[in-house]
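Quick one, tokens below:
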């Protein structure tokens, strides 16, 4: 599996605080079947994104995990005015492996028209915004249909693995399943912050998706699409995957 959302770099945000904790998180990820993981430190009002410091820590951590798991660098990019302008001026500064995919966290209180405008600006700059954990955004939970328009415009969606398993409450779990049922999910990732509560273990969520939505969906959301972001490649068509899975189940009957 490929995990495109994690806070494994030590001391940069509210994720891992020491190199020892970072290494333990990577051990947990590898043991659960993750071969590649993207370090995505926050860029928001509380935690300033420092590309040079992130690169230093990334190289240090990568050097300590040779052969066990591959680490990649991105950013958990909070949507605000200053960040938006900076990303448009520097399209590869915050993206995964300096390609086109950007992990985009929406504000807790959102104005739908403003978000749509920002998405259009990012897409116009050659960036593919991946909206992170919309199922956990309380102001967006009642407006999930809006995601259909954003996806049609070129945005993509990442759901948190533990949301599907109930870690973030019933509302987030219902929203995650609603997005899955609507074929509006392109990635499932851990958003790991530690070794105990919000860990990088994706195995349980992978089993859940495989059982409820089919092995092809699980492979697309945990393996193929996340791997495509590392290379800057195109994603699989999740809607057609779902249709094919339904057709096969009907045929078996």
């Amino acid at each position: 599996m490929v995990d495109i959302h994690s806070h494994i770099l030590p001391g940069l945000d509210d994720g891992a605080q020491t190199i020892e904790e970072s290494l333990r998180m990577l051990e947990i990820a590898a043991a659960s079947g993750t071969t590649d993981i993207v370090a995505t430190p926050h860029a928001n009002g509380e935690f300033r994104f420092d590309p040079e410091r992130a690169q230093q820590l990334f190289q240090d951590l990568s050097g300590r995990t040779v052969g066990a798991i591959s680490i990649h660098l991105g950013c958990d990019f909070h949507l605000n005015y200053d960040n938006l302008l900076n990303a448009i001026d520097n399209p590869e500064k915050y993206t995964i492996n300096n390609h086109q995919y950007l992990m985009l966290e929406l504000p807790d209180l959102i104005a739908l028209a403003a978000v749509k405008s920002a998405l259009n600006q990012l897409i116009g700059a050659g960036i593919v915004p991946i909206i992170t954990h919309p199922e956990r955004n309380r102001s967006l939970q009642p407006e999930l249909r809006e995601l259909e328009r954003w996806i049609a415009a070129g945005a993509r969606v990442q759901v948190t693995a533990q949301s599907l398993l109930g870690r973030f409450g019933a509302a987030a779990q219902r929203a995650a399943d609603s997005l899955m049922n609507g074929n509006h999910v392109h990635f499932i990732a851990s958003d790991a912050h530690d070794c105990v509560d919000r860990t990088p273990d994706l195995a349980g969520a992978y089993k859940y998706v495989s059982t409820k939505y089919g092995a092809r969906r699980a492979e697309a959301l945990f393996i193929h699409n996340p791997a495509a972001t590392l290379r800057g490649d195109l994603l699989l068509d999740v809607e057609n995957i779902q249709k094919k899975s339904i057709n096969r189940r009907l045929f078996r009957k």
